[in-house]
Amino acid sequence: MKLLFELSGEDEILSKAEVFSSFDEYKVILDFKTALVLDLKQDEYTTKYKRKFQYLGLTKYVSEVLAITELDKDDIIKQAIKIKLDDEDKNKNLSLRVRCKKVEKSDKICLELERRVGRIFKNKGFKINLTNPDIEIRIILCKNKAIIGRKITSYEDLEKISYKDLPFFYPGIIKPKYSRVFVNLCALKEGEILLDPMCGTGSMLIEGILMNLKAIGSDIRKKVVKGAIQNLNFVSNIGRVLQPKYHFIVADSRYLPFKDKTIDGVVVDMPYGRSSPIFGKSMKELYQKSLEELYRVSRGRCVIVSRDNISDLAESIGFKRVGYYEQRVHGSLVRKILVVSPSL
């Protein structure tokens, strides 16, 4: 089946990498600035995928593609008439609305398309509801194509955790949506083990348990580990996670107490030497020994966020580079995001 991903537009490269990490096999059909259409091997999305889509940090909407047309008003209308939703024969009382959006410069036809396509589905027997419909048809106008889709889910459907409500705070916390991005780049499946060896307040692991991953957090600072436990306990007690599984220990990332190749994925935000202290002889030594340990214990992807580009060091240890991205935070601070996998 074909799926449309409407990206947030904050970071085009990183947002697409996050989507690609969600699937083992896919084919890119269309790739615009903030619109991405993939052809997936499976015939239909499942409830599990619907939940996974909600946790894409840099994607606003995910829709099932119903038609792809030329950027021509009459052609869009003709294709809309041909569309037959499964629900037509099942329930004539379902409500529907049409939303149109321009990705790049195009004719100003959105409002007209919303009205005309809405009228088409009204004639098919659906009730028009502009506030809380059962079905949302989305028309995305790109540079030279129009995509008609049926919304599966969106960022609005996600019940977000307010980080302001967490009992433990520490300076330098990553925004939740980017924590989600970094966890998604690990490409883990539900029930697999996610490790954050410098867990801080536990923000990465909070997103991990919300995605039904088994979370392991460690940090060299005992006070911080206690705070992270408080935060995950808080999230677990508000009912967002059915069966939260997490464990924390006080440990040095240079000497991890785990057996070889027992961790499915790793996400770590290395200290920058500003609000977070650097333990060990130097940053160079911290990078070297921590990466050696991650290579030893991991059997899947590692997402390493740092102030420096450590790609060469990671590859010298034996990692294979999957992706590398840069993200400006503020001032002179640029996050270097390295995605690697062990050469098994």
From TrEMBL:
PROSITE patterns: THUMP (PS51165), UPF0020 (PS01261). Belongs to the methyltransferase superfamily. Trm-G10 family. One of its GO terms (cellular component) is cytoplasm. The keyword Cytoplasm applies. Monomer. This is tRNA (guanine(10)-N(2))-dimethyltransferase. It comes from the Archaea. It is an enzyme of class 2 (transferase). It comes from Methanoliparum thermophilum. The keyword Protein transport does not apply. Keywords: Cytoplasm, Methyltransferase, RNA-binding, S-adenosyl-L-methionine, Transferase, tRNA processing, tRNA-binding. One of its GO terms (molecular function) is tRNA binding. It catalyses: guanosine(10) in tRNA + 2 S-adenosyl-L-methionine = N(2)-dimethylguanosine(10) in tRNA + 2 S-adenosyl-L-homocysteine + 2 H(+). Its main location: cytoplasm. Residues 47-152 form the THUMP domain. It is found in: Cytoplasm. GO terms for biological process: tRNA methylation. Its EC number is 2.1.1.213. Catalyzes the adenosylmethionine-dependent methylation of the exocyclic amino group (N(2)) of guanosine at position 10 of various tRNAs. Acts via a two-step process that leads to the formation of either N(2)-monomethyl (m(2)G) or N(2)-dimethylguanosine (m(2)(2)G).
